[in-house]
Inverse folding.
């Protein structure tokens, strides 16, 4: 029998699975049953959409067979099956799965993390946790030849011609010493009911059980066959018949999240919220959406895997279509089941189909509406949601204009005010309700680390005068807020920009932006302009500083320093160079020293004041060495 070697990545994966990855061995059974269900789904779809498969008999069945004599457990289906090449592609290499990404995700010490199960198409390999050997015998639907793939999971596998009467796949797991606990009917049945009760096809458990006579004596064995799952798509059942435990069990099996009972498991394993909707009328469909408690690991990757599956009249169509919901809702998990879409719907048809567009639009409104209700009725839970998914919602503010108003009510920000709400989050509406009498704008500071923003000199006079400022520390804030326009008639102003300080009022020389000729402030401006030259757009006396000697802002028409850096990181078109405006605190001793300094010292002072102001705002210095030399001279 010719032997094949696993790819290096698969060998590493098998070693991790067997020795350290999965903390719950029972997962192997759930994964094999799930694969069997997927195989039947594929055949069901092809049997109604592809002429080549319409003549293939379709009588879906999944059988789990316990053989105590051979110490094996078999998972058998009559689904699409695999030919010889597909066996090698799907089981011998990583080309068709996300295994390489899976391995990259793991730390070097390969900590146990059952929440990774089911995310990368590696579930089949979990059988090697409990197996000395695994045999996969399969015959492709419509084909005549069958083949058997065999491996002990230690680096090699073989494929040879075999026999199988009908189409489908049989996975025979030769149990090792640790896996023999699954030779008991009760243990297998409990695992199947726990994780696979929602599977839409009957799961028949087959075993040989002791037979007892009338007096209770053992009288041989009898073959017992029993369907152990409800065999109904949970989302199609009336909501009144579904318990919370049913929704949770379905979420576990649907997403592969968490293996312990949610009653005793950490909250991270359970969904944060779910939304079950049945629409009747011109367009009929059912949706069941879950909001996870934790953000998916690939949430911010371009190749993220969508979490919503599309069915048509309970026939599985796709789980790889990113157009089912907007990109900013990519964290949502769940099911859309339509009564009106054609079974042979393609990706191109989906993108242009009126029915799908209506379902998508209604689903978005339903999700956003439920989140708004959650924000009102359970502020603690909503704060957890915002902690995980605030940024994706903000993406919707510039990508989904039709739902912008709803999204504005959902997104949250941090603030310089003392916010008692969980997480310290506030909405624009809440900020507006707290505005001081006569205040004309909503103020915000954006760009970079929250702690650094809170310490920014730009906030000093706002804080002194009791004017609240939103602290916007996510990179996306700069783009979102600059493009929002007025909120309920109130303009949004960035304190990073010149002119935003108009409401700070006049308060003597400190707030006089055009100092009197011949004054120390005027002298400081003149010397700073001469020393800095083309490095700045302007030098002026600041209205916003109280304790710091200097700060930098940008002109109202220029992109901020943070936005320019962000666009550079995103690989966009190179933005024009931004020259900052240096604002000086006319009352500060260093600025007064600048006014009285000779030319050499004035140059050092001006360039150090500009450099430290740039550093405080998170900008990079063009010449750090020159800054250090000038600072050292001043310290001497």
């Amino acid at each position: 029998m010719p032997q094949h070697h696993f790819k290096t990545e698969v060998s590493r994966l098998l070693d991790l699975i067997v020795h350290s990855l999965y903390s719950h061995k029972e997962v192997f059974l759930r994964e094999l049953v799930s694969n069997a269900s997927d195989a039947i789904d594929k055949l069901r779809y092809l049997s109604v959409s592809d002429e080549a498969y319409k003549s293939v008999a379709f009588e879906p069945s999944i059988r789990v067979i316990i053989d105590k004599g051979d110490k094996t457990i078999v998972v058998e289906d009559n689904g699409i099956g695999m030919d010889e090449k597909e066996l090698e592609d799907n089981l011998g290499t990583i080309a068709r799965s996300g295994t390489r990404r899976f391995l990259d995700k793991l730390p070097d010490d390969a900590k146990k993390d059952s929440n990774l199960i089911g995310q990368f198409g590696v579930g089949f390999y979990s059988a090697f946790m409990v197996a000395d050997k695994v045999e996969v015998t399969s015959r492709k639907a419509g084909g005549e030849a069958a083949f058997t793939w065999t491996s002990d999971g230690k680096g090699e596998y073989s494929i040879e011609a075999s026999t199988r009467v009908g189409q489908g796949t049989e996975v025979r797991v030769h149990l090792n010493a640790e896996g023999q606990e699954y030779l008991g009917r009760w243990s297998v049945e409990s695992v199947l009911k726990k994780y696979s009760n929602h599977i839409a096809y009957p799961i028949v458990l087959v075993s040989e059980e002791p037979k007892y006579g009338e007096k209770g004596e053992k009288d041989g064995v009898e073959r017992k066959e029993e369907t152990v799952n409800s065999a109904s798509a949970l989302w199609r059942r009336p909501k009144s018949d579904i318990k919370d435990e049913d929704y949770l069990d379905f979420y576990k099996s649907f997403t592969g999240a968490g293996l312990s009972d949610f009653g005793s498991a950490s909250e991270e394993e359970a969904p944060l919220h779910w939304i079950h909707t049945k629409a009747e009328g011109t367009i009929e469909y059912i949706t069941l959406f879950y909001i996870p408690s934790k953000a998916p690991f690939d949430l911010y990757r371009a190749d993220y895997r969508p979490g919503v599956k599309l069915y048509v009249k309970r026939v599985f169509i796709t789980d790889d279509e990113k157009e089912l919901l907007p990109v900013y809702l990519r964290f949502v998990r769940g099911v859309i089941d339509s009564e009106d879409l054609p079974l042979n719907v393609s990706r191109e048809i989906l993108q242009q189909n009126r029915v799908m567009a209506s379902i998508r639009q209604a689903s978005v409104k339903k999700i956003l509406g439920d989140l708004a209700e959650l924000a009102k009725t359970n502020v603690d839970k909503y704060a957890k949601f915002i902690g995980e998914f605030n940024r994706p919602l903000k993406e919707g503010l510039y990508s989904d204009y039709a739902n912008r108003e709803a999204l504005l009510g959902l997104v949250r920000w941090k603030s310089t005010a003392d916010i008692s709400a969980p997480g310290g989050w506030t909405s624009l509406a809440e900020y507006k309700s707290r505005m001081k009498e006569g205040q004309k704008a909503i103020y915000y500071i954006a760009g970079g680390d929250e702690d650094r923003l809170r310490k920014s000199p730009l906030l000093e006079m706002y804080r002194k005068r009791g004017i609240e400022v939103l602290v916007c520390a996510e990179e996306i804030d700069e783009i979102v807020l600059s493009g929002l326009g007025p909120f309920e008639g109130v303009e949004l102003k960035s304190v990073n920009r010149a002119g935003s300080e108009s409401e700070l009022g006049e308060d003597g020389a400190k707030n006089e932006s055009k100092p009197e000729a011949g004054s120390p402030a005027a002298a400081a401006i003149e010397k700073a302009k001469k020393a800095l030259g083309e490095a700045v757009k302007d030098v002026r006396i600041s209205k916003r500083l109280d304790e710091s000697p200097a700060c930098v802002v940008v002109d109202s028409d220029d992109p901020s320093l943070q936005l320019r850096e962000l666009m550079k990181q995103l690989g966009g078109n190179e933005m024009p160079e931004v020259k900052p405006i240096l604002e000086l605190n006319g009352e500060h001793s260093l600025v007064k020293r600048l006014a009285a300094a000779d030319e050499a010292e004035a140059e050092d002072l001006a360039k150090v004041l500009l450099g430290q102001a740039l550093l405080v705002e998170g900008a990079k210095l063009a010449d750090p060495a020159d800054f250090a030399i000038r600072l050292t001279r001043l310290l001497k």
